[in-house]
Automatic annotation (TrEMBL):
The keyword Transmembrane does not apply. Residues 1-19 form the signal peptide. It comes from the Bacteria. Coiled coil: none annotated. Residues 63-135 form the YCII-related domain. Belongs to the YciI family. This is YCII-related domain-containing protein. InterPro entries: Dimeric_a/b-barrel, YCII. Keywords: Signal.
């Protein structure tokens, strides 16, 4: 009898704890922030994605390739500092499309994105080629960059 009462009490307590789950309140809409980020009514905006692909140049000189990659990284940093690039990074696995990495540029203009990607020394040297695609994503995407330095101990 005691075990039935104990079991019933445990089941009742469990049911009540599920019923009292905390509801997460949606943050209050911030018109000023939305406007400053160029957000539409859905909090989204157009960007341009550049997919870096394997280029036609075959550079065997390791020192030359190292110099080009340092220039590639410096250019990414410069474009990020200027607010032109909001995401950049390599792919971790080989793929049949020969995609090597990607940029998300803070522009809806494919022409402008192409001008910016052509400033990359590795693109100029033919180490990378590229494909350009329009993309629609969260207008808050650029905000993550201000926190990246807080979580990275080293730069590549």
């Amino acid at each position: 009898m005691k075990s039935r009462i104990l079991l019933t009490a445990c089941l009742l307590i469990s049911a009540l704890s599920f019923a009292q789950e905390k509801k997460v309140e949606k943050p209050k809409y911030n018109q000023e922030l939305a406007t400053s980020l160029g957000a539409d009514k859905y909090g989204m905006k157009p960007y341009t994605i550049v997919m870096l692909t394997t280029g036609s140049a075959k550079i065997e000189d390791k020192a030359k390739m190292s110099e080009l990659m340092k220039g590639h990284m410096a250019n990414i940093g410069k474009l990020a500092d200027e607010g032109k690039i909001v995401v950049a990074g390599p792919f971790l696995e080989k793929n049949k499309e020969n995609y090597r990495g990607m940029f998300i540029f803070n522009t809806k203009s494919k022409e402008e994105a192409e001008q910016w990607v052509k400033t990359d020394p590795a693109v100029q040297a033919g180490v990378f080629s590229y494909e350009i695609f329009p993309w629609y994503g969260s207008a808050a995407l650029p905000l993550y960059l201000k926190h990246h330095d807080e979580i990275s101990k080293e730069n590549p």
